[in-house]
């Protein structure tokens, strides 16, 4: 029983006491601590009796009693305490002594000045609360009485000597604290003019001096103001004046220093003061504040941004109708967090935002997908993100559709079988067939080529050929080039039998494409495929090596072939004004940068990439050094964004590939088909496509504007004749496909104006009806021959006149003389 009464009460203390923190000129020793129940961090102030006296214990107990009654944002927060005849424990929020914090912090000069201004403002507000509202005098304002929280907030503590009596100064038990006493303590005659705040304002002046100079050892050192900011010296001089009646009220100090150009006026203070009063602001004020917050973060220390601003930004978005303007500062601050903190603080908010109906919010999320996806686990991606994101494929806004397509490139490594191989391909098939924006059709092809490495081998073998050959028949030239380059970039996934029966015939059709940029691309790719087939012809044993990756589930990184991808806005190349006016000449440039997808493999990945390993096989032909620059430049550009607008500055055309005399040399020119993933620089001037619309398409007639084209979905992309292709896996993903529509030659004919005087390919060898008739008499033979000759000469003169007017290169469809 007696042991119960004699038990040490500290053994049941609810907090673990950790390492000590440097702290001087105080009756307290400070230790870091944690609450045993939940692990919350705290600070534990410990005061033990010394030299057999109880003076320090009495002072400590008085401080605990006083701190319990003070509740203010600028006053140190009391949590718990424990007292006995030998010691006193005081538990507060986690803090660091100010002078220790200033010595250990590694802030830039500008950040340090801003942080100090914010801290001194808080201390001054705390003194104003004590002097004006609480009618108390602190009597111990100095560097040892101020503490800093992890969020950068300065808290006023050290209330051991706080009193409401302004006529008598307390006796301090530590001699080193006497240096902070005001001059009126030793000159009682000046006490007649003293005020409630006079002693604390002297202490505030001492605190300001210590912040910029270190511990104050002698009172006369206060006259040295060399290290103080110039916009603070005037107020500082008033604080340390010998006349107590002339020292300003702390409320007036705040007002004076908050004026423009003064020490309490900067981006950090303006931001934090607004956040303190955000619940009182209207919607317009909140929107304006968050719209301007991102650039201000450059002037705010990182620890304040992550601990003070970030929680307020998240709360404002959840409970205020501020829209998408908070996302930019949210993502900027998020870059300062480690992975664990990012997943704890930002990711839950971001995942919820994907269900937002606000297009601006969705667009910002899609644009940040590359950085967001690395913090998401596959379960979150498949169960919460992708179902909401997939609605963007059918959004009526083209920008949302385009950004949704691009986001798949980053999500693909974490998508499960159903979402990637069924849902994504279903949406891609519909977009490639029916989307009205040429740029979106183009980027759909690009993205499919990028995610091909993550597709299941069986699905990949069924869909890639049909998808890319369909793209090669798109009316939009960049879409045709996308199909060509996608075929080249994924060449390791096609059996040689499919190459010679489906891919090469489709490529050959484009050798007579009306656009030279398309012809250039297809000739480069044809040379590579033919070289591959030629090697197998010379050594049939290589066929198995070349087809090793067809059924492989390995995820290989394709990073160099999609830089040329254009945005949907480039479809404006073929837009015409009302009244049949000619299309406006506009060019679109890709923004600089490199889009590099995540190289993480999907769950299906099990074997290394044959494309990378092939450099060790006899089939590998490394490109020459001079040729490398021709296709490494694919990485120098990025997806063209729809909302970037059109740049009227033409893009410099690429350097032509060196001419090759053999198929093997041609393969070296463009890079090895087994290992290379790009076919050369593709910075051709898309604006030059406009020049071909003025009377030089195919047979010399004018190319019809886009408004006269048939829709992409109306073409029979998969048939080269009347027979229906029943193996088109990609088309089967879209329900309700439109009917087939004739042969390739018929479709190409429909893309140009048919003029009786145009010099088309068929006109050169076609016979007139009179010449092919068997009923004409010999008497009319010479006359008909003469008329035919005159028509031929007239048609030839018209073609030459058009060519001379254009002063351009000879176009397809014109016969050489």
From TrEMBL:
Residues 780-803 have a biased composition (Basic and acidic residues). Residues 627-636, 671-688 have a biased composition (Acidic residues). PANTHER family: N-TERMINAL KINASE-LIKE PROTEIN, SCY1-RELATED S/T PROTEIN KINASE-LIKE. Residues 587-603 have a biased composition (Low complexity). HEAT repeats lie at residues 346-384. Residues 1-264 form the Protein kinase domain. The keyword Ubl conjugation does not apply. Regulates COPI-mediated retrograde protein traffic at the interface between the Golgi apparatus and the endoplasmic reticulum. Involved in the maintenance of the Golgi apparatus morphology. It comes from Penaeus vannamei (Whiteleg shrimp). GO terms for molecular function: ATP binding; protein kinase activity. Pfam families: PDS5 (PF20168), Pkinase (PF00069). GO terms for biological process: microtubule cytoskeleton organization. The keyword ATP-binding does not apply. Residues 576-817 are annotated as: Disordered. SUPFAM superfamilies: ARM repeat, Protein kinase-like (PK-like). Gene3D superfamilies: Leucine-rich Repeat Variant, Phosphorylase Kinase, domain 1, Transferase(Phosphotransferase) domain 1. Keywords: Kinase, Repeat, Transferase. Belongs to the protein kinase superfamily. InterPro entries: ARM-like (IPR011989), ARM-type_fold (IPR016024), CIK-Related_Protein (IPR051177), HEAT_type_2 (IPR021133), Kinase-like_dom_sf (IPR011009), Prot_kinase_dom (IPR000719), TOG (IPR034085). This is N-terminal kinase-like protein. Residues 576-586, 604-622, 650-664, 710-719, 732-758, 770-779 have a biased composition (Polar residues).
């Amino acid at each position: 029983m007696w042991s119960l009464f004699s038990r040490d009460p500290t053994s049941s203390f609810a907090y673990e006491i950790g390492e000590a923190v440097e702290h001087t000129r105080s009756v307290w020793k400070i230790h870091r601590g944690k609450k045993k129940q939940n692990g919350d961090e705290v600070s534990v102030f410990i005061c033990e009796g010394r030299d057999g006296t109880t003076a320090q214990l009495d002072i400590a107990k008085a401080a605990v009693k006083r701190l319990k009654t003070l509740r203010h944002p600028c006053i140190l927060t009391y949590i718990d305490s424990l007292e006995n005849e030998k010691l006193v424990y005081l538990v507060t929020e986690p803090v660091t002594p100010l002078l220790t914090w200033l010595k250990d912090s590694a802030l830039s000069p500008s950040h340090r000045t801003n942080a100090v201004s914010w801290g001194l403002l808080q201390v001054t507000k705390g003194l104003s609360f004590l002097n004006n509202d609480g009618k108390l005098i602190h009597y111990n304002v100095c560097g040892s009485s101020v503490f800093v929280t992890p969020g950068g907030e300065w808290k006023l503590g050290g209330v051991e000597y706080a009193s409401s009596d302004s006529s008598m100064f307390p006796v301090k038990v530590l001699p080193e604290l006497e240096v902070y006493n005001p001059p009126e303590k030793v000159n009682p005659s000046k006490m007649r003019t003293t005020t409630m705040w006079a002693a604390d304002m002297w202490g505030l002046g001492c605190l300001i001096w210590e912040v910029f100079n270190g511990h104050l050892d002698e009172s006369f050192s206060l006259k040295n103001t060399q290290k103080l900011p110039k916009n603070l010296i005037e107020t500082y001089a008033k604080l340390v004046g010998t006349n107590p009646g002339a020292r300003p009220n702390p409320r007036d100090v705040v007002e004076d220093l908050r004026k423009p150009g003064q020490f309490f006026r900067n981006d950090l203070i303006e931001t934090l003061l607004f956040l303190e009063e955000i619940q009182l602001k209207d919607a317009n004020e909140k929107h304006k504040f968050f719209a301007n917050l991102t650039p201000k973060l450059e002037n705010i220390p990182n620890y304040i941004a992550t601990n003070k601003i970030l929680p307020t930004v998240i709360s404002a978005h959840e409970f205020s109708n501020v829209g998408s303007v908070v996302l930019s500062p949210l993502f900027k601050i998020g870059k300062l967090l480690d992975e664990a903190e990012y997943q704890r603080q930002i990711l839950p908010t971001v995942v919820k935002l994907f269900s937002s109906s606000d297009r601006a919010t969705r667009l910002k999320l899609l644009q940040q997908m590359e950085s967001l996806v690395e913090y998401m686990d596959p379960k979150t991606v498949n169960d919460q993100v992708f179902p909401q994101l997939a609605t963007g494929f059918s959004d009526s806004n083209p920008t949302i559709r385009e950004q949704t397509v691009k986001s798949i490139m980053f999500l693909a490594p974490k998508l499960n079988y159903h979402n990637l191989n069924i849902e994504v391909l279903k949406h891609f098939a519909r977009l490639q067939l029916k989307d009205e924006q040429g740029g979106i059709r183009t980027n759909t092809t690009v993205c499919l080529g990028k995610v091909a490495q993550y597709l299941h081998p069986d699905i990949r073998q069924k869909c890639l050929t049909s998808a890319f050959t369909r793209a090669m028949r798109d009316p939009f030239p960049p879409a045709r080039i996308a199909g060509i380059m996608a075929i080249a970039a994924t060449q390791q996934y096609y059996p040689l039998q499919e190459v010679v029966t489906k891919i090469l015939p489709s490529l050959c059709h484009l050798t007579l494409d009306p656009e030279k940029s398309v012809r250039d691309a297809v000739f480069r790719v044809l040379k590579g495929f033919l070289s591959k087939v030629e090697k197998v012809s010379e050594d049939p044993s290589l066929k198995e090596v070349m087809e090793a990756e067809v059924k492989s589930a390995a995820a290989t990184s394709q990073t160099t072939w999609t830089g040329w991808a254009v945005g949907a806005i480039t479809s404006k190349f073929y837009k015409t004004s009302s009244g049949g006016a000619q299309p406006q000449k506009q060019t679109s440039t890709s923004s600089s940068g490199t889009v590099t997808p995540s190289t993480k493999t999907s769950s299906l990945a099990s074997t290394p990439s044959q494309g990378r390993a092939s450099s060790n096989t006899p089939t590998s032909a490394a490109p020459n050094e001079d040729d490398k620059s021709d296709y490494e430049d694919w990485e120098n550009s990025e997806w063209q964004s729809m909302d970037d607008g059109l740049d009227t500055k033409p893009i410099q055309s690429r350097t032509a590939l060196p001419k090759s005399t053999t198929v093997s040399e041609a393969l070296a020119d463009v890079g090895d088909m087994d290992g290379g993933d790009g076919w050369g620089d593709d910075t051709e001037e898309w604006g030059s496509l406009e020049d071909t619309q003025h009377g030089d398409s195919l047979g010399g007639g004018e190319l019809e504007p886009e408004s006269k084209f048939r829709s992409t979905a109306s073409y029979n992309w998969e048939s080269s004749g009347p027979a229906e292709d029943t193996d088109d896996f990609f088309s089967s993903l879209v329900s309700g496909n439109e009917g087939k529509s004739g042969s390739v030659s018929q479709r190409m004919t429909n893309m140009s104006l048919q003029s009786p005087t145009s010099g088309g390919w068929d006109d050169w060898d076609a016979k007139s009806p009179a010449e092919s008739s068997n009923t004409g008499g010999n008497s009319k033979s010479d006359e008909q021959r003469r008329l035919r000759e005159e028509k031929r000469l007239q048609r030839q003169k018209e073609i030459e006149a058009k060519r001379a007017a254009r002063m351009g290169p000879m176009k397809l469809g014109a016969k050489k003389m």
